Amino acid sequence: MGMMVAAMEREARTAGAFVTVSSTMGVPDRQLDTVRLLRALRPRALVLTSSRFMVNALEGRLGKELLSYEREGGRAVIVGEAETPFDSIGFDNYGAGRLAGAFAAETGYRRVAIFGGAGELRNMSDRTAGFVDGLQAGGVDGRDIRTVYCEVSRAGGFEAARRLAAEGMDGREAVLAVNDIIAIGALSGFRAAGISVPGDVSVTGVDDIPLAGDVTPRLTTVALPLAHAGAEAIRFALEKAGTARWLCLEGRLIVRESTRARR
């Protein structure tokens, strides 16, 4: 998120605009209260970024608040969900997951664990579905794919890795984590359990946060264009358009030292 906000600020400066950031931690009531508060200040535009947006939220009180704001002459842009009633920039989370799943299958892995898969977060469930389809398209039997549910945090990844290690890895040779934070936690959990990455298990994440290139081993991941999304969000916010515009951005696979071809 930091990369996205920095890109927003750079783009706004070039247009002579100013960005103010408010954090709601993805909590619907806080999102609604923040939008109401900011409306009173009459900003030129509102950009809402969250992995926790759901269609029903935008169809409910939050959506009505944003529509009222636009009728008053403001402009709302949603980052994180595509195809909303507002200008929207989303990510192909399913495609990102499929890239990672296909890569694991192509490099010879046949028993795979997925870390995460929290159903209430649409981006995470989309990535999980992509993992499964990419693996199966590469010849992995669905019965050999196991989802290990965990908190979407570094601690969640650490505990999921420790649980899997305590089970003797359950024969799993590769782990696909729904984001880099979980994957980085998993690296620490496996290290604490005496499991070598990538010697005993390969680990792949999604997002390509800055820390992904700094941990040891450096993390293989699917990079999402977060900075590009931030810049595009400001362009959408400052441009005039008659109808809602939708943009979906794709990820790209970055192979680093946390994975290797199966022997």
Automatic annotation (TrEMBL):
Q: Where is the Transcriptional regulator LacI/GalR-like sensor domain?
A: 105-259
Cite the SUPFAM superfamilies for this sequence. Answer: Periplasmic binding protein-like I
Query: Which InterPro entries does the entry link to?
Result: LacI/GalR-like_sensor, Peripla_BP_I
- Single GO MF annotation: DNA binding
Specify whether Transcription regulation is a keyword of the entry: yes
Highest rank taxon of the organism: Bacteria
Q: Recall the taxonomic lineage recorded for the source organism.
A: Bacteria, Bacillati, Actinomycetota, Actinomycetes, Streptosporangiales
Q: What is this protein called?
A: LacI family DNA-binding transcriptional regulator
UniProtKB keywords: DNA-binding, Transcription, Transcription regulation
